[in-house]
Design goal:
The protein has 311 residues and is α/β, with parallel strands linked by helices. It folds into 2 domains: 3-121 and 285-310, 3-Layer(aba) Sandwich (Rossmann fold), CATH 3.40.50.10950; 130-269, Isocitrate/Isopropylmalate dehydrogenase-like (Rossmann fold), CATH 3.40.50. Helix content is 48%, strand content 15%. The protein has 13 helices and 10 strands. It has helices at 3-14, 27-39, 54-68, 75-82, 85-94, 109-120, 142-145, 161-177, 199-214, 226-230, 232-237, 256-269, 295-310; strands spanning 18-21, 43-46, 100-102, 130-136, 147-151, 184-188, 219-224, 250-252, 273-280, 286-287. Strands 2-1-3-10-9-4-5-8-6-7 form a 10-stranded mixed β-sheet, with helices on both faces. Helix 3 packs across helix 4, helix 5 (85-94) runs parallel beside helix 6 and helix 8 packs across helix 9. The two termini are 25 Å apart. 50% of the residues are buried.
């Protein structure tokens, strides 16, 4: 077990939060729940059709309808949504009956994100929901001794400059508060400091300006090719060493396609751990899972979600 994973689990144990797992029929989830309870990482509520409280389900349905009727949803739409354990779990978190939920072993990211956004709501200070992965690369000296945060790899397909700025800010806050690592943020591109030109580069430059105006103390730079972002030697060669000096540990991708491809390449080719996608920008904590997740991935996403609930 890596040092960062050990620290995450220990921090989760400090205040055992109640985390809901709605995918009771997935064997990996069952095994993870047993490990989490045994190690004292969190208090687990493994939802099943048999332990649904019908009175609460009725109340959750009414509350959900009040949230969604302005969007044109009917009461019948709300009843259908709350017949799903996924939405029931999300409403438990909204109603403070649980501290967070983790799902995605048998649901797509879009399904989990939709339930989370509709039930938990978006934090008004951020204005957008996004996601990040904690990437743990073995035998790697880059980033934070092989630890990186990748964003956004799961939610926003083509972020605007303002959305990119907030993705960077959300990922940086996550890195600092949950991983206890000082964030060093790089906006990634195929260009480093005007080595190319075009609207894509202009979009990243604008995002950098917005992020710097909102969080002027944040260590953040762009546009940077990935080698200039994470390798000091190449940062010097490409004259991109004034801010990050090739030591970025938070990598912000220009769009969802680049982010999703990159995290999967690193995960498979470098045999990295990929925790997430962890959903950011919501009023309460939750995490998605890759449908190819391992038991250990579920355990550690629960631990991260529990730490976020401590804040």
């Amino acid at each position: 077990m890596s040092d960062i994973i050990s620290k995450i689990r220990e921090r989760a144990k400090a205040t055992r939060k109640r985390i809901v797992l709605p995918e009771y029929d997935d064997q990996r989830v069952k095994q993870a729940a047993q490990i989490i309870e045994k190690e004292g990482i969190a208090k687990i509520c493994l939802l099943t059709p048999e332990n649904i409280d019908k009175e609460k389900q009725k109340r959750y349905t009414e509350d959900f309808f009040s949230l969604r009727k302005a969007k044109g949803d009917s009461l019948e739409d709300s009843r259908k949504a709350l017949s799903s354990l996924l939405y029931y779990a999300a409403m438990m978190v909204r109603e403070a009956q649980a501290d967070g939920f983790v799902a995605g072993a048998s649901h797509s990211t879009s399904e989990v994100a939709r339930a989370a956004i509709h039930c938990l709501g978006i934090d008004e200070q951020m204005g957008i929901a996004s996601s990040c992965f904690v990437m743990i690369v073995p035998n790697c000296s880059y980033g934070e001794e092989g630890v990186f945060v990748f964003a956004d790899c799961g939610i926003i397909p083509q972020p605007s400059p303002e959305q990119l700025a907030y993705i960077a800010i959300e990922a940086a806050q996550f890195t600092e508060k949950v991983l206890a690592i000082e964030p060093r943020v790089a906006f990634l591109s195929y260009s480093t400091k005007n080595s190319a030109s075009g609207w894509e580069i202009d979009r990243i430059k604008e995002a950098l300006n917005i992020a710097c105006s909102i969080r002027p103390q944040l260590l953040i730079d762009g546009e940077l090719q990935v080698d200039a972002a994470i390798i000091p030697e190449f940062a010097r060669i490409k004259q991109a060493d004034k801010v990050l000096a090739g030591r970025a540990n938070v990598l912000i991708f220009p769009d969802l396609e680049a982010g999703n491809i990159s995290y999967k390449l690193v995960q498979r080719l470098a045999r990295a751990r990929a925790l997430g996608p962890l959903l950011l920008g919501l009023k309460r904590p939750c995490s998605d899972l890759s449908r190819s997740c391992s038991v250990e991935d579920i355990v550690d996403c629960v631990a991260v979600t529990a730490i976020r609930a401590q804040k």
